[in-house]
Amino acid sequence: MDKEQRLRVAIQKSGRLTDHSLDLLSRCGLKYSRGKDQLLCYGENMPLDVLLVRDDDIPDLVREDVCDLGIVGGNVVNEKRLSFLARGVEPLFEVLQSLDFGRCRLSIAVPDNFNYTGPQSLAGRRIATTYPHTTSHWLAENGVPAEVVTLSGAVEIAPRLGRADVICDLVSTGSTLQANHLRESEVVMQSQALLIRTPVPLPQAKEDWLNRILLRIDGVQQVKESKYIMLHAPRSALAEIRRLLPGSESPTIIPLEGTTDKVAIHAVCRENVFWETLESLKRAGASSLLVLPVEKMLA
Ligand code: PRP
Ligand code: ZN
Predict the structure, then answer these.
(1) 155, 176, 184: residue to mutate for ligand 1 pocket, most atoms within 8 A of CB
(2) Taking the alpha carbons of 155, 160, 163, 168 in that order, is the dihedral positive or negative?
(3) Which of 32, 148, 165, 199 fits 125 for a cystine, CB–CB 3.0-4.6 Å?
(4) Better-predicted residue by pLDDT, 222 or 211
(5) Does 214 sit in the ligand 1 pocket, CB within 6 Å?
(6) Predicted confidence band at 279 (pLDDT cuts at 50, 70, 90)?
(7) Does residue 152 line the site of ligand 1, with CB under 6 A?
(8) CB distance 170 to ligand 1 below 6 Å
(9) Full-model pTM
């Protein structure tokens, strides 16, 4: 297939989303070989190539139609959207779906000895961030007049260097803040990975592949938590057992050879099945319980 027929997806080159993004694409069936420059992965069994770039560049690449798709944090998407709007440019990318990884939050963090009692504590202060638009937007919403100091990185050391009083930065485990004697004091936004696409209509063959990939992503996300559960139960306990099965649709009920009052129940549970659930099922009369992971699912 020529280049015009191949989908191109931009993902983060190195960072919190990289491994999860590649893993998701692999689970969707993609086999790829990595180019010499390590920046392009060529899809061997699908017309889909992966471009590895800085996460901040992903919305631009999709907006400028260099890439058809992007996997990027909601934090970056939000910041870019606000910056495009501020420049009077249409934010030409569409969020297709939330992905089940990359959870973190953009937060205000203050030095350990800073007396933070609420947003107004930031009035007149300097806030260092790589997310100036999101930060300004939040300050305006809270009616706090403060100075936003835009940095390109190493935000967490800005207070110690005297470049700012507090920071607004991404937090996931909190270890960066801790190492820099900072304390998370306000969540500005929650974030997770998003799949974005160009709003430009694609040639039909590409659109078709995109739709197939979206269905596969749905399948991948559903099976993560899903379990296949099998058990034996007395007919009299059927109602109670169905109630206990977490997130399952109609189970399959199979008669058991040599008995009329017992059946086998097979069901897909779209939630994790915990030991507590198995114990409750057993108390309700179930026996021979078996829980299996689900590998693939297609609705
Ligand atoms: C963020 C942030 C911190 C770190 C926080 O950077 O700037 O350095 O993650 O994570 P922690 O709470 O687990 O310590 P990120 O790796 O996302 O890099 P980027 O901002 O350059 O994309
Ligand atoms: Zn980044």
Answers:
(1) 176
(2) positive
(3) 165
(4) 211
(5) no
(6) very high
(7) no
(8) yes
(9) 0.86
CB of residue 171 inside a 6 A radius of ligand 1: yes
Is beta strand 69-73 parallel, antiparallel or unpaired with respect to 7-12? Answer: parallel
| pLDDT, tens digit (0-9, with 9 covering 90-100), for 48-88 | 999 999 999 999 999 888 999 999 999 999 999 999 889 98
Pocket of ligand 1, candidates 12, 170, 192: which has the most ligand atoms within 8 Å of its Cβ, to mutate?
Answer: 170
> What pLDDT does 4 receive?
72
pLDDT in tens, 136-181: 999 999 999 999 999 999 999 999 999 999 999 999 999 999 999 9
Distance CA 253, CA 235 (A): 10
3-state secondary structure 157-213: HHHHHCCCCEEEEEECCCHHHHHCCEEEEEEEEEECEEEEECCCCCCHHHHHHHHHH
171 CA from centroid of ligand 1 (Å): 6
With a 6 A CB cut-off, is 49 part of the ligand 1 pocket? Answer: no
Q: What's the CA gap between 205 and 195, in Å, rounded?
A: 20
Integer Cα distance of 93 and 77 in angstroms: 9
Write down all domains in the chain, each with its CATH number in brackets.
3-102+193-222 (3.40.190.10), 104-191 (3.40.190.10), 227-293 (3.30.70.120)
Instruction: Kindly give the distance from the C-alpha atom of residue 70 to the centroid of ligand 2, in angstroms, as a whole number.
Output: 14
The pLDDT value recorded for residue 1 is 47
